[in-house]
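Quick one, probably user error.
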């Protein structure tokens, strides 16, 4: 059986699942100090969802018990973390429960009412249609909404998005801290739950983990709903911490993708570019300082010996970035897992 036939079978399975309503969709809602909103969020989740996991992340308000007492929705399952693990820990608890229950697509929605449950299928459909492994919200598609956003918040998100592009390798994504997401079970079960950051860096760290799987991630345009809820995330307070973690993830991603798992022309361009740039800067700086102290002008040839490596180094680094941008994953990972399951039968 040819690869084209396998593609048709896999695509047919996915569309049939969507068409016949057989896809099991689950929603994970981290619950921490959201008693005022969580029942309303649950009530707005449509009938296409089979299971709703409320994860009580050691909430001081006892949100898990509150939901059990006041919610009659039969789809709701309350999970409890014995200690507060942050949004990442709560989401991963929900992911693991959904995987154990054989849910097909797992959607994460916050319990504070900022995310419209009516948009849920906008996140699920690209996955069911075989176009993505993971979808996430993007609040920056609407230019009018961007203009209404506080400038400091817009600048903070732009900085975080730029750092995320470097560390995750998903150069076509924006709004990295957006927590409205959906993921296919076949991808979620390969995530290293013990290693993923459990607090505010969770949404960004999971993108890095997805890239190491070569999963396809797609942005979904959305509007945020703002009311009397209070966000605990202060971008000005986390930029420094995020920067350190982005540098760490960037180094890991480059090592995994360009040296450990595969090698390409980009694997050569980056180290050569960095070496030439650093050598040119050090050589030039040393002669510039020497000229300052001695008062003797630096010879033109010496200046060129410094400038040329810097120029070439920058060119090599830009060439590497061009290759890295072109290497954004395009083939959904979960389709490969479906193929691997159909291969033995096809071989017969």
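Nope, works fine. Designed sequence:
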């Amino acid at each position: 059986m040819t690869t084209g036939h396998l593609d048709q079978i896999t695509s047919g399975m996915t569309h049939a699942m969507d068409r016949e309503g057989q896809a099991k969709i689950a929603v994970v809602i981290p619950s921490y100090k959201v008693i005022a909103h969580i029942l309303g969020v649950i009530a707005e989740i449509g009938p296409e969802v089979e299971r709703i996991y409320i994860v009580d992340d050691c909430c001081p308000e006892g949100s898990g018990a509150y939901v059990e007492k006041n919610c009659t929705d039969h789809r709701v399952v309350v999970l409890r973390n014995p200690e507060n693990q942050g949004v990442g820990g709560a989401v991963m608890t929900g992911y693991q429960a959904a995987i154990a229950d054989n849910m097909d697509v797992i959607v994460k929605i916050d319990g504070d009412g900022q995310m419209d449950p009516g948009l849920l299928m906008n996140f699920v459909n690209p996955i069911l249609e075989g176009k993505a492994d993971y979808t996430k919200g993007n609040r920056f598609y609407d230019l009018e909404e961007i203009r209404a956003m506080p400038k400091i918040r817009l600048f903070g998100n732009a900085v975080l998005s730029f750092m995320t592009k470097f560390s995750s390798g998903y150069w076509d994504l924006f709004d990295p801290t957006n927590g409205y997401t959906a993921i296919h079970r076949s991808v979620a079960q390969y995530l290293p739950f013990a290693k993923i950051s459990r607090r505010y860096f969770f949404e960004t760290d999971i993108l890095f983990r997805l890239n190491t799987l070569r999963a396809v991630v797609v942005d979904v345009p959305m509007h945020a709903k703002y009311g009397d809820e209070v966000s605990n995330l202060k971008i000005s307070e986390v930029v420094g911490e995020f920067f350190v973690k982005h540098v760490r993830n960037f180094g890991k991603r480059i090592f995994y993708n360009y040296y450990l798992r595969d090698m390409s022309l980009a694997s050569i361009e980056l180290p050569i570019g960095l070496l030439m740039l650093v050598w040119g800067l050090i050589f030039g700086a040393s002669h510039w300082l020497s000229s300052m102290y001695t008062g003797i002008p630096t010879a033109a040839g010496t200046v060129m010996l410094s400038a040329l490596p810097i120029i070439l180094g920058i060119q090599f680094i830009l060439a590497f970035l061009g290759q890295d941008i072109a290497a954004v994953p395009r083939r959904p990972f979960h389709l490969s897992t479906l193929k691997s399951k159909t291969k033995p039968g096809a071989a017969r």
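Residues 263-347 form one domain.
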